[in-house]
């Protein structure tokens, strides 16, 4: 019995996983393009080519869908960031700073920002996004410390890295309405130098 | 004739200016508390204790009201910031960095952020907010350069100050959902040190 059931079950799980993934990706794209007010489970289901019922089976509430979506894409991006520097701590700190700042200039950041801002006014969303934000923030900090080869036992090193990530977020915000790539590159070049001196 | 008209006109102008000011302040408070979706001319007029007709006399469209409001409060804050350091370039750069970062943690930043994020998805709002943002950004940069006593002819000095303001914006974002004051103070202390060394 076991054999047949396993054979039957695997493709079904695969299909379910693929559906879930399509929903998550559609949710982030929808949030980035239309903001929180324009992002409902129905809109996302249609965009993903999934029935509304199937979408609600995976994500019972709107909050479930969108927080899971931002978390999923954030994890994907963390994995991609580590993969850029497979040797671990990079010799070229400017390349690491550039890659970290890039995390905050794409559709994921745009989506996360919409969720973040909506959460500041919606009590139902707020605790979920606060938790998500803390989790993603810790993970990004850990990657930054690793790739920059920062020694957090040195006084100030932890705050230097934190300030860099705050700067990256601010640069993401500055890129929201206009293409800020030229200015951003010059700021990154200068602060990568200062950071390099500070971290030794 | 001249005399009487002037006497009559002045209090009327004063009343009009006071009404305008009440509307602008109510608009920022409304935006900070309810976001763009919850901010209409009617809601603001009621909050300010002004008739809807009077509000529309001052600000024909919703876009007019809210961009004018953010600009007005930003100018007020710039003036207050300069007043904190009446002697000009401050000896204590950490105090300047703290004051600059404080610009991004109050209701004004919250209001501006809502307007900013809404503008990224609304074509009608986008050019207005882009222009406002550029104007306010230039003014803040000018104040920062003055108060930090930065010499922008030195290579990298301009980008050092810009990166600091990007960090301040990122710190504002980090403060949106939770009280981030403790962490922020440590980041500011460390980055003020790096900035001080960089600017010489």
Automatic annotation (TrEMBL), chains A, B:
Keywords: DNA-binding. Pfam families: TetR_N. Gene3D superfamilies: Tetracycline Repressor, domain 2 (1.10.357.10). Residues 40-59 bind DNA. SUPFAM superfamilies: Homeodomain-like. Signal peptide: none annotated. It comes from the Bacteria. GO terms for molecular function: DNA-binding transcription factor activity; transcription cis-regulatory region binding. Residues 17-77 form the HTH tetR-type domain. This is TetR family transcriptional regulator.
């Amino acid at each position: 019995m076991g054999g047949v059931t396993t054979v039957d079950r695997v493709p079904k799980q695969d299909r379910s996983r693929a559906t879930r993934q399509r929903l998550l990706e559609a949710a982030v794209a929808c949030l980035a393009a239309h903001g929180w007010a324009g992002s409902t489970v129905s809109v996302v289901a249609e965009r993903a080519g999934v029935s509304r019922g199937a979408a609600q089976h995976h994500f019972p509430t709107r909050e479930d869908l969108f927080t899971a979506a931002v978390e999923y894409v954030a994890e994907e991006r963390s994995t991609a960031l580590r993969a850029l520097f497979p040797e671990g701590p990079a010799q070229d700190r400017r390349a690491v700073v550039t890659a970290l700042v890039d995390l905050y200039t794409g559709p994921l950041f745009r989506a996360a920002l919409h969720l973040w801002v909506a959460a500041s006014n919606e009590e139902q969303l707020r605790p979920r996004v606060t938790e998500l934000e803390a989790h993603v923030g810790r993970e990004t900090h850990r990657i930054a410390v690793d790739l920059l080869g920062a020694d957090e036992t040195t006084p100030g090193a932890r705050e230097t890295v934190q300030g860099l990530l705050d700067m990256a977020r601010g640069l993401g915000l500055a890129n929201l309405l206009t293409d800020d790539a030229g200015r951003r590159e010059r700021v990154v070049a200068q602060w990568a130098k200062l950071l390099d001196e500070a971290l030794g």
